[in-house]
Structures are given as structure tokens and as C-alpha cells.
């Protein structure tokens, strides 16, 4: 699994709409509204390297309201958290 962190600059009045559209793209697992350098951060998870172009260049970058993107490719994950367990807390199947 390949993970990319995509920093997204948007038109200020379109942040919620852009976030919603980006969230709907295949390969995008989460979108966060953030403070700092970017307006949104999208987590992209795909199985093959070529799919990154499909999601980012042909998907995220073409969403109306997206002004600029910067992509960070993750090499390795370091975490003490079991993210699946954390997201499952309090949820009944």
C-alpha cells in the first residue's frame, strides 16, 4: 500500500465543497481541514504507484476550487497507535 499526503490550497469560500468532492474520489481515505500552510490535507492510499497520478493529477487537481497541491509520498509509517482499533472505539458492528 502506498500512502501520499496531499496538501491542498483552495479558494477560501469553497473549502467545504472542495473537501466533500475530494473525499468522494477513489483512493482518498480522509480529508482534513487544517491550519497552517494548506487549507486541506488529503490522505491518499493506493496499491500501485501509477494510481497516484490517477487520484492526484487526474482527480484532486481537477476538482473545481483547487488552486494548488503539494504531494508528500510516505516512505515508512511510525506509530504507537493501532489506528483501526482507535477508529473502532465505541462503534457497534
From TrEMBL:
One of its GO terms (molecular function) is sequence-specific DNA binding. GO terms for cellular component: cytosol. It comes from the Bacteria. GO terms for biological process: response to amino acid. Residues 6-76 form the Transcription regulator AsnC/Lrp ligand binding domain. This is Lrp/AsnC ligand binding domain-containing protein. The lineage of its organism: Bacteria, Bacillati, Actinomycetota, Actinomycetes, Micrococcales.
Amino acid at each position: 500500500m502506498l500512502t501520499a499526503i496531499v496538501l491542498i490550497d483552495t479558494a477560501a469560500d469553497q473549502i467545504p465543497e472542495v473537501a466533500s468532492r475530494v473525499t468522494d474520489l477513489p483512493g482518498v481515505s480522509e480529508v482534513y481541514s487544517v491550519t497552517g500552510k494548506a487549507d486541506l490535507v488529503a490522505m491518499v492510499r493506493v496499491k500501485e504507484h501509477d494510481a497516484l497520478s490517477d487520484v492526484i493529477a487526474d482527480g484532486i487537481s481537477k476538482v473545481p476550487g483547487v488552486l494548488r497541491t503539494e504531494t508528500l509520498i510516505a516512505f515508512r509509517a511510525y506509530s504507537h497507535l493501532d489506528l483501526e482499533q482507535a477508529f473502532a472505539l465505541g462503534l457497534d458492528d
